[in-house]
Amino acid sequence: MILLDGKKTANDIKDEIAIEVSTLIANDRKKPHLAAILVGKNGASETYVNAKVKACKKVGFSSTLVCLDEKVPESELLAEIEKINVNKDIDGLIVQLPLPNHIDEMKVTQAISPNKDVDGFHPENIGRMVLNLPTYLPATPSGIIELISRYNIKTSGKHCVVIGRSHIVGSPISILMSRNNHIGNCTVTLTHSRSKNLKQITKTADILIVALGKAGFVTRDMIKDGVCIIDVGISRVESSVTKSGWKLLGDVDFDQVKDKCSFITPVPGGVGPMTIAMLLQNTLISAKRDIY
């Protein structure tokens, strides 16, 4: 069993980005600039946004964080987005999800300029991805592809089973894994809450990508020997053995399955760090204007 070390791989990518940023600056180009909008006081969202700001500093990016009250009118949030859309100094914009219930997430997603949509969620960028055109890939699926690539995992002709069909992870990774690319050419089965005989399906997977949000959902009897498992899920559960009183678990029961796997991502330290690294990569692409 080989552990897919997302933390180390993400740090390698950040080091590569930092070198590119130094080259840009040496050639009298401006620093890439990432802006983030945070609405409300969600603890997990604050932690994640702060990690993104810290990562920007590490690679030499400029960053802007706009914090808005939880009760901010939707119109005011949309106005903040438009300010950043027209600001030529800013290369990438993310609006941290989830948003309060009174705000339409899809309306917000569509309000972000496609050429600054470094999260890769805008319908125009999703469409370009489906057509295999140059675009910003959604950060988490892109991180999965990069992790698979850097560990030289063979995908062509393999059966890839995806559990979860969210527009953030499950749906886009199913498309990416089926594309006619170096990392791709899989036969993909996308499963979800209405799928029948799930265990029979997952036991045929050569590559199993799990993005469900249910701690320990995938157990030993659901996989075959030699499977490669990419665990995207992360749940915070109470624990009597940690100082904090809680721990983070993935969608896969790691201890149960690890000795049956050829490759597996840990949680934490697997896909999570890769998501931030690919967000930075998209921002660098935007700054270099390599797409639009």
Task: Explain the layout of strands and helices.
Elements: E1 2-3, H1 6-26, E2 33-39, H2 43-59, E3 62-68, H3 74-85, E4 92-95, H4 105-111, H5 123-130, H6 139-150, E5 159-163, H7 170-178, E6 187-191, H8 198-202, E7 207-210, E8 227-231, E9 235-238, E10 246-249, H9 254-257, E11 261-264, H10 271-288
Parallel strand pairs: 1-11, 2-3, 2-4, 5-6, 5-7, 7-8, 8-11
Antiparallel strand pairs: 9-10
Identify the strand order in the major beta sheet.
1-11-8-7-5-6
Poorly predicted runs are: none
> What's the total count of β strands?
11
CATH superfamily of the largest domain: NAD(P)-binding Rossmann-like Domain
| Share of β-strand residues | 15-25%
Description:
By secondary structure, the chain is α/β, with parallel strands linked by helices. The chain has two domains: 89 residues, Leucine Dehydrogenase, chain A, domain 1 (Rossmann fold); 134 residues, Rossmann fold (3-Layer(aba) Sandwich). It is 39% helix and 17% strand. The protein has ten helices and eleven strands. The termini are far apart.
Write a compact overview of the structure shown.
This protein has helices at 6-26, 43-59, 74-85, 105-111, 123-130, 139-150, 170-178, 198-202, 254-257, 271-288, and strands at residues 2-3, 33-39, 62-68, 92-95, 159-163, 187-191, 207-210, 227-231, 235-238, 246-249, 261-264.
Distinctive features:
three-stranded parallel sheet, 17% strand, six-stranded parallel sheet, alpha/beta, Rossmann fold, globular, 292 residues
